Amino acid sequence: MARLQPDQKEQCVITASKHQNLALPSYRHLMSEVDEENCHALAAFACLLTASAFASTTLPGTLLFSRSPHHGEMPEWIFFLRGGFELIFESKEWIEKGPMAQLLRRAQPPIDLSLNPDDIHLAALQPLFNPSGDSDEVDEDLETCQTTWVLLRETFAMPFAPCQTVGVKAAIYIWVDTVPQAFFRLLREKKGEALVLLAYMCVMLKRGACYWYMAGHAENILSSIDDIIEEHFRPWLEWPRQKVQVMDDVM
Protein backbone atom coordinates (compact mmCIF):
# COMPACT_ATOMS: atom_id res chain seq x y z
CA MET A 1 0.00 0.00 0.00
CA ALA A 2 2.86 2.38 0.81
CA ARG A 3 4.25 1.84 -2.70
CA LEU A 4 0.89 2.39 -4.38
CA GLN A 5 0.00 5.38 -2.20
CA PRO A 6 3.25 7.27 -1.49
CA ASP A 7 1.42 10.09 0.28
CA GLN A 8 0.28 7.58 2.92
CA LYS A 9 3.61 5.79 3.24
CA GLU A 10 4.35 6.89 6.80
CA GLN A 11 0.97 5.75 8.11
CA CYS A 12 1.23 2.44 6.21
CA VAL A 13 4.66 1.73 7.68
CA ILE A 14 3.44 2.53 11.21
CA THR A 15 0.41 0.27 10.78
CA ALA A 16 2.48 -2.58 9.35
CA SER A 17 5.01 -2.33 12.17
CA LYS A 18 2.22 -2.34 14.75
CA HIS A 19 0.66 -5.50 13.29
CA GLN A 20 4.04 -7.22 13.04
CA ASN A 21 4.94 -6.41 16.63
CA LEU A 22 1.59 -7.75 17.81
CA ALA A 23 2.13 -11.04 15.99
CA LEU A 24 5.82 -11.62 16.78
CA PRO A 25 5.41 -12.88 20.40
CA SER A 26 2.98 -15.61 19.28
CA TYR A 27 5.24 -16.50 16.35
CA ARG A 28 8.28 -16.86 18.58
CA HIS A 29 6.31 -18.96 21.06
CA LEU A 30 4.91 -21.29 18.40
CA MET A 31 8.34 -21.76 16.78
CA SER A 32 9.11 -24.13 19.65
CA GLU A 33 5.78 -25.94 19.22
CA VAL A 34 5.59 -26.53 15.46
CA ASP A 35 3.11 -29.20 14.46
CA GLU A 36 1.20 -30.44 11.42
CA GLU A 37 -1.57 -27.89 11.96
CA ASN A 38 0.33 -24.65 12.55
CA CYS A 39 3.41 -25.17 10.35
CA HIS A 40 1.74 -23.71 7.23
CA ALA A 41 0.69 -20.49 8.95
CA LEU A 42 4.13 -20.14 10.54
CA ALA A 43 5.84 -20.61 7.16
CA ALA A 44 3.60 -17.98 5.59
CA PHE A 45 4.29 -15.55 8.42
CA ALA A 46 8.04 -16.16 8.07
CA CYS A 47 7.79 -15.10 4.40
CA LEU A 48 5.89 -11.94 5.33
CA LEU A 49 8.48 -11.13 8.01
CA THR A 50 11.29 -11.43 5.50
CA ALA A 51 9.57 -9.21 2.94
CA SER A 52 8.65 -6.64 5.60
CA ALA A 53 12.17 -6.50 7.04
CA PHE A 54 13.62 -6.37 3.51
CA ALA A 55 11.35 -3.47 2.53
CA SER A 56 12.03 -1.49 5.70
CA THR A 57 15.78 -1.60 5.05
CA THR A 58 16.00 1.27 2.58
CA LEU A 59 19.07 3.28 3.53
CA PRO A 60 22.33 2.62 1.63
CA GLY A 61 24.52 0.22 3.56
CA THR A 62 21.88 -1.16 5.89
CA LEU A 63 20.66 -4.19 3.92
CA LEU A 64 23.71 -6.39 4.53
CA PHE A 65 26.25 -4.29 6.41
CA SER A 66 24.16 -3.46 9.46
CA ARG A 67 23.99 -5.76 12.41
CA SER A 68 20.92 -6.29 14.53
CA PRO A 69 21.35 -5.73 18.28
CA HIS A 70 19.07 -8.74 18.83
CA HIS A 71 20.29 -11.14 16.14
CA GLY A 72 24.07 -11.09 16.41
CA GLU A 73 26.03 -10.59 13.22
CA MET A 74 23.06 -10.70 10.85
CA PRO A 75 20.69 -7.94 9.75
CA GLU A 76 17.11 -8.60 10.80
CA TRP A 77 15.78 -9.70 7.40
CA ILE A 78 18.52 -12.32 7.03
CA PHE A 79 17.83 -13.61 10.53
CA PHE A 80 14.14 -14.00 9.67
CA LEU A 81 14.86 -15.59 6.28
CA ARG A 82 17.33 -18.15 7.61
CA GLY A 83 15.07 -18.91 10.57
CA GLY A 84 12.10 -19.32 8.25
CA PHE A 85 13.94 -21.79 6.04
CA GLU A 86 15.04 -23.75 9.11
CA LEU A 87 11.41 -24.04 10.17
CA ILE A 88 10.30 -25.04 6.67
CA PHE A 89 12.83 -27.82 6.22
CA GLU A 90 12.42 -29.15 9.75
CA SER A 91 8.69 -29.47 8.96
CA LYS A 92 9.23 -30.68 5.41
CA GLU A 93 6.96 -33.74 5.61
CA TRP A 94 4.03 -31.49 6.56
CA ILE A 95 4.91 -28.42 4.47
CA GLU A 96 5.16 -30.40 1.24
CA LYS A 97 1.49 -31.41 1.60
CA GLY A 98 0.18 -27.89 2.12
CA PRO A 99 -0.15 -24.47 0.48
CA MET A 100 3.47 -23.47 1.20
CA ALA A 101 4.98 -26.47 -0.59
CA GLN A 102 6.58 -24.22 -3.23
CA LEU A 103 9.01 -22.96 -0.57
CA LEU A 104 10.70 -26.37 -0.68
CA ARG A 105 11.72 -25.99 -4.30
CA ARG A 106 15.40 -26.46 -4.96
CA ALA A 107 17.38 -26.92 -8.15
CA GLN A 108 18.37 -30.54 -8.46
CA PRO A 109 22.14 -31.11 -8.34
CA PRO A 110 24.35 -31.08 -10.19
CA ILE A 111 23.52 -27.55 -11.33
CA ASP A 112 24.74 -26.90 -14.88
CA LEU A 113 26.68 -23.63 -14.56
CA SER A 114 26.95 -23.33 -18.35
CA LEU A 115 23.22 -22.55 -18.50
CA ASN A 116 24.00 -19.08 -17.15
CA PRO A 117 25.15 -16.89 -20.07
CA ASP A 118 27.04 -14.66 -17.60
CA ASP A 119 28.95 -17.46 -15.88
CA ILE A 120 32.17 -16.47 -17.64
CA HIS A 121 32.21 -13.31 -15.51
CA LEU A 122 31.68 -15.21 -12.27
CA ALA A 123 34.24 -17.88 -13.17
CA ALA A 124 36.80 -15.11 -13.70
CA LEU A 125 36.66 -14.35 -9.96
CA GLN A 126 38.57 -17.50 -9.04
CA PRO A 127 42.00 -15.81 -8.74
CA LEU A 128 40.59 -13.69 -5.92
CA PHE A 129 40.42 -16.74 -3.69
CA ASN A 130 43.88 -18.16 -4.36
CA PRO A 131 46.11 -17.97 -1.24
CA SER A 132 49.00 -15.54 -1.57
CA GLY A 133 52.58 -16.49 -0.68
CA ASP A 134 54.03 -19.91 0.02
CA SER A 135 52.32 -20.54 3.34
CA ASP A 136 50.69 -23.94 3.81
CA GLU A 137 48.31 -22.54 6.40
CA VAL A 138 44.62 -22.64 5.51
CA ASP A 139 43.09 -19.19 5.16
CA GLU A 140 39.61 -19.75 6.58
CA ASP A 141 38.34 -16.40 5.34
CA LEU A 142 39.33 -17.22 1.77
CA GLU A 143 37.74 -20.66 2.12
CA THR A 144 34.52 -18.99 3.25
CA CYS A 145 34.64 -16.70 0.21
CA GLN A 146 35.36 -19.60 -2.13
CA THR A 147 32.38 -21.55 -0.79
CA THR A 148 30.20 -18.45 -1.19
CA TRP A 149 31.52 -17.97 -4.75
CA VAL A 150 30.55 -21.54 -5.70
CA LEU A 151 27.06 -20.98 -4.28
CA LEU A 152 26.84 -17.67 -6.16
CA ARG A 153 27.58 -19.33 -9.49
CA GLU A 154 24.89 -21.91 -8.78
CA THR A 155 22.46 -19.15 -7.78
CA PHE A 156 22.94 -17.38 -11.12
CA ALA A 157 22.37 -20.65 -13.01
CA MET A 158 19.22 -21.78 -11.18
CA PRO A 159 16.67 -19.58 -13.02
CA PHE A 160 18.04 -20.83 -16.37
CA ALA A 161 17.35 -24.51 -15.61
CA PRO A 162 15.13 -26.14 -18.29
CA CYS A 163 12.19 -26.70 -15.91
CA GLN A 164 12.84 -23.40 -14.07
CA THR A 165 11.60 -24.72 -10.73
CA VAL A 166 13.55 -21.91 -9.01
CA GLY A 167 13.01 -18.28 -10.03
CA VAL A 168 15.20 -15.25 -9.38
CA LYS A 169 13.68 -14.35 -6.00
CA ALA A 170 13.85 -17.94 -4.74
CA ALA A 171 17.45 -18.24 -5.96
CA ILE A 172 18.44 -15.10 -4.03
CA TYR A 173 16.78 -16.43 -0.89
CA ILE A 174 18.48 -19.81 -1.28
CA TRP A 175 21.88 -18.11 -1.58
CA VAL A 176 21.30 -16.02 1.56
CA ASP A 177 20.13 -19.12 3.42
CA THR A 178 23.03 -21.35 2.39
CA VAL A 179 26.12 -19.10 2.48
CA PRO A 180 28.38 -19.69 5.50
CA GLN A 181 27.57 -17.67 8.60
CA ALA A 182 31.16 -16.39 8.55
CA PHE A 183 30.45 -14.57 5.27
CA PHE A 184 28.32 -11.99 7.09
CA ARG A 185 31.19 -11.38 9.51
CA LEU A 186 33.52 -10.77 6.55
CA LEU A 187 31.08 -8.21 5.17
CA ARG A 188 31.01 -6.35 8.48
CA GLU A 189 34.82 -6.44 8.50
CA LYS A 190 34.76 -5.05 4.94
CA LYS A 191 36.96 -7.79 3.54
CA GLY A 192 37.54 -7.02 -0.13
CA GLU A 193 36.87 -10.51 -1.49
CA ALA A 194 33.52 -10.66 0.32
CA LEU A 195 32.54 -7.21 -0.92
CA VAL A 196 33.27 -8.22 -4.52
CA LEU A 197 31.03 -11.29 -4.14
CA LEU A 198 28.28 -9.10 -2.74
CA ALA A 199 28.67 -6.72 -5.69
CA TYR A 200 28.08 -9.62 -8.07
CA MET A 201 24.99 -10.65 -6.10
CA CYS A 202 23.67 -7.15 -6.83
CA VAL A 203 23.13 -8.28 -10.43
CA MET A 204 20.68 -10.90 -9.15
CA LEU A 205 19.08 -8.36 -6.82
CA LYS A 206 18.56 -6.06 -9.77
CA ARG A 207 16.84 -8.88 -11.64
CA GLY A 208 14.56 -9.24 -8.63
CA ALA A 209 13.62 -5.55 -8.63
CA CYS A 210 10.23 -6.44 -10.11
CA TYR A 211 9.33 -7.40 -6.55
CA TRP A 212 8.50 -4.10 -4.86
CA TYR A 213 10.45 -4.85 -1.67
CA MET A 214 13.64 -5.59 -3.61
CA ALA A 215 13.54 -2.46 -5.76
CA GLY A 216 16.49 -0.12 -5.27
CA HIS A 217 18.59 -2.45 -3.12
CA ALA A 218 21.06 -3.38 -5.88
CA GLU A 219 21.95 0.27 -6.42
CA ASN A 220 22.14 1.01 -2.70
CA ILE A 221 24.48 -1.88 -1.98
CA LEU A 222 26.78 -1.08 -4.92
CA SER A 223 26.94 2.51 -3.74
CA SER A 224 27.93 1.36 -0.26
CA ILE A 225 30.59 -0.98 -1.61
CA ASP A 226 32.03 1.84 -3.71
CA ASP A 227 32.38 3.92 -0.56
CA ILE A 228 34.31 1.35 1.49
CA ILE A 229 36.19 -1.09 -0.76
CA GLU A 230 39.95 -0.82 -1.06
CA GLU A 231 41.29 0.65 -4.29
CA HIS A 232 42.98 -2.50 -5.60
CA PHE A 233 39.65 -4.38 -5.55
CA ARG A 234 37.81 -1.77 -7.62
CA PRO A 235 38.59 -3.29 -11.06
CA TRP A 236 36.61 -6.36 -10.00
CA LEU A 237 33.47 -4.23 -9.70
CA GLU A 238 33.36 -3.18 -13.34
CA TRP A 239 31.03 -5.94 -14.57
CA PRO A 240 28.38 -5.69 -11.81
CA ARG A 241 28.37 -1.88 -12.20
CA GLN A 242 27.82 -2.17 -15.94
CA LYS A 243 25.19 -4.89 -15.59
CA VAL A 244 23.11 -3.08 -12.99
CA GLN A 245 23.25 0.14 -15.02
CA VAL A 246 22.22 -1.59 -18.26
CA MET A 247 19.28 -3.30 -16.55
CA ASP A 248 18.34 0.03 -14.99
CA ASP A 249 18.17 1.60 -18.46
CA VAL A 250 16.00 -1.28 -19.71
CA MET A 251 13.63 -1.13 -16.73
Provide an overview of this structure.
The chain is an all-alpha fold and 251 residues long. It has helices at 9-30, 39-56, 76-90, 92-95, 119-123, 140-157, 168-178, 181-188, 192-207, 217-228, 238-250. The protein is built from eleven helices and no strands. 33% of the residues are buried.
Question: What is the strand and helix layout of this fold?
Answer:
Blueprint: H1 9-30, H2 39-56, H3 76-90, H4 92-95, H5 119-123, H6 140-157, H7 168-178, H8 181-188, H9 192-207, H10 217-228, H11 238-250
Summarize the model shown:
By secondary structure, this protein is mostly helical. The chain contains eleven helices and no strands. Helix 1 runs antiparallel to helix 2 and helix 9 runs antiparallel to helix 10.
Radius of gyration: 19 Å
- By secondary-structure content and strand pairing, the structural class works out as mainly alpha
Q: What is the arithmetic mean of pLDDT?
A: 85
Beta-strand residue percentage? under 5%
Strands, count: 0
User: What's the shape?
Assistant: globular
As a percent range, the share of helical residues equals 55-70%
- Spatial gap, N to C terminus: 22 Å
Order of helices and strands: HHHHHHHHHHH
Query: What's the number of helices?
Result: 11
Low-confidence stretches: none
Largest sheet: none
